[in-house]
Each structure stands twice: as C-alpha cells, then as structure tokens.
Amino acid sequence: NKQVIFKGYIDGVPKISDMELKLSNIKLNNPSQQALLVKNLYLSCDPYMRGRMRDFHGSYIPPFVPSKVLEGFGVSKVIVSDNPNFKAGDLISGFTGWEEYSIITKTDQLRKIEPDDHIPLSFHLGLLGMPGFTAYAGFYEVCSPSSGEYVFVSAASGAVGQLVGQLAKLHGCYVVGSAGSKEKVELLKNKLGFDEAFNYKEELDLDAALKRYFPQGIDIYFDNVGGDMLDAALLNMKIHGRIAVCGMISQQSISDPKGIRNLSSLIYKRIRMQGFLQSDYLHLYPKFLEEVSAYYKQGKIVYFEDMNEGLESAPAAFVGLFTGKNVGKQVICVSHE
Ligand code: NDP
Q1: Cβ-based burial of 305 (10 A; exposed 0-12, middle 13-18, buried ≥19)
Q2: Superkingdom, according to UniProt (predicted)?
Q3: pLDDT more than 70, % of the chain
Q4: Ranges for all domains in the chain classified under CATH 3.40.50.720
Q5: Where does 2-126+305-333 sit in CATH, by number?
Q6: How far is the CA of 181 from the centre of ligand 1 (A)?
Q7: pLDDT grade, residue 30 (50/70/90)?
Q8: CATH superfamily of 130-279
C-alpha cells in the first residue's frame, strides 16, 4: 500500500521534502469494529492542511502525527465493510489517508455519493465538497449579499473563490477577482463570468488597484488571503460593507505575521468583518448540494479543477497551493476506479 508520510512539524512554506512516499504493509483483509476498507480514488489538497503541519493543539483540528500517513478529504470506494450503513461498492467522501487503500474507523461524517453521469466524481472534493460548501455558506450566510452590490474576491480562481464569484453573479452582483497569474485572470474574465479581474502580483499599489476597479467602493470582500490585500480592501470598503474572513493563506506559513494597519476603517465605515468556518453551517449541506448540483447541470455555473495523476504527485501538488501553481481546485487522482 503506497502512502504519503508526514515527516515532522515544519516552519515556513511547505516543501516536497516535508513528505515522503513509503510502502506500508497495511493488511488488506477484513476490517473489523464497524470499519471500512476503502480504495482511495481522488484526494484533495487543501490549504488548511498546512495548519496541521505545526505542533499546535489549539486549533479546530489536531495536528498531523509525525511519521504517519497524511490525512485529508477524499473520494473512495468501499471494498469491504463491517458497518451496516455501507456496503462493498459504495462511493463515499470524507476523511481518508493519503494512500492507495485505507481502513476508515470514523464513519459518522462520511457522505455517500449518489453516482451521477453528469457530475465528475472528483467534484465531491471541490464544487460539491468542502471548498464549494465554504463558498456557499460564506457568501450567503456571512456576506449578507443583495443584488446590485459590489463584490471583491481574492484567490478568486481557486477552489473556493471561483464558486463565490459565480454565486455572486447569479445573485445579481458586480464581481471582481484577484489572482496570481495572467492565465488565472483570463480564466476569471472569460470562463468564470467575473466582470473584472486583475493579477495582484503585477500591482505595485493594491489600494490603487482596488480604487481602479471599485471607484465607488466595495460592499462585500470575500477574503481568502489576508495580509496586504485585506489591508487594501479595508481602505476601499463602503459604509456598512461586509468582509467574510474565509482564509489567510498569505499569512499561513509566516511565524510572525505583520499586523493589519487599516482596522480603524471598521469603525468609521461601520464594516462588519466576520471570520467563519464552513463546519459551523453543515445543516445547510443538503440544500447546498441540491442547489449547486442543479446550477451545474443547468449550465449556470462551471468549475475548474487542476488534476494531478498518481499518488506520487501529491506532495508537489500540495506544495503548489502555496506558490499559486494550481489553476482551479487541486485534486490528486490515485485511481480512476
Ligand atoms: P485555492 O484553490 O485558492 O489555492 C490556494 C491559492 O491561494 C493559490 O492558488 C494562490 O492563488 C493563493 N495563494 C497562495 N499563496 C498566496 C500568498 N502568499 N498570497 C496570496 N495568495 C496566495 O485554495 P482554496 O480555494 O481551497 O482556499 C482558499 C482560502 O480559503 C484559503 O485561505 C483556505 O485556507 C480558506 N478556506 C477556509 C475555509 C473555512 O471554513 N473558513 C474552508 C476552506 C478553505 P493565486 O495564484 O491567485 O495567488
């Protein structure tokens, strides 16, 4: 059983050498105690996993265990089940190991996937998985959007951002996205329906860039990056604007992040800035699945993935999230069936 092992706690930006590929002698026999033996088909690379690479126990999720297999969201096929709720052949999504086969003992949060010829299985890690749900819950529940409002999304071509922008367009908003390459900017403008997009790496002055795209100010900032972009957005919010603090990927690997300078805007512009975790809104998951699947099937939204083939490619794909190598949702295909 090929596995990706987490070597030990890290400082700074993750490197490929922080992980290693190993062969384990996991027994592929019958699992017991309500467990499942699954074959992992698709694995998800997500930025929050960086947080699990530090020796910090105060977060909403515990750190990875050094020298053990990495863990993340996956789409898997049940091979053997000792659990009455699952049977061999079922397709599931939920936490699994970064390995070819896993024994899953925590089955209460697994979701059974109804196969659908019109929706790729791997979408259960992106559009219909945790990142898509983050976009849905964050936009509708945290941003309090109204039609006609001006919306700014950072890391806009990524797993979360691309859906936020499209939901905002469907809601009748004007939407601008920022991303880190020309290719991503083209994708936002030409394929994802954003009204405007810009490459923040080419802007010397982020405040000036936002003033160019939002001469009358921003109603909603969906923040995926934190840092300098958040500071610039604070200067450009409208009165009673809302900032959904979804992620701070620009600060995630910095041990001593620099402070945000423009927080006083919160007061005189009466801005509501709110952090959130998608997991607080799980009661909305069925509604999300129904609505977003329908939008996709009706051609009202599209979704871009960056698919790497083979478990061997997983460490590089994960590391690539922190340099912006991924174009769209980063997924690893371990096996097609
Ligand atoms: P993406 O698919 O967007 O991939 C990460 C992207 O972040 C990269 O492609 C890159 O895009 C950008 N990035 C990387 N490093 C930096 C940097 N130093 N400064 C600015 N941008 C950077 O990831 P997701 O869509 O999965 O996640 C987006 C954010 O949402 C993350 O911060 C994540 O932690 C957060 N999140 C929060 C959840 C919640 O419940 N609150 C749940 C899920 C995700 P580019 O080329 O455009 O720079």
Answers
A1: buried
A2: Eukaryota
A3: 99
A4: 130-279
A5: 3.90.180.10
A6: 14
A7: low
A8: NAD(P)-binding Rossmann-like Domain (3.40.50.720)
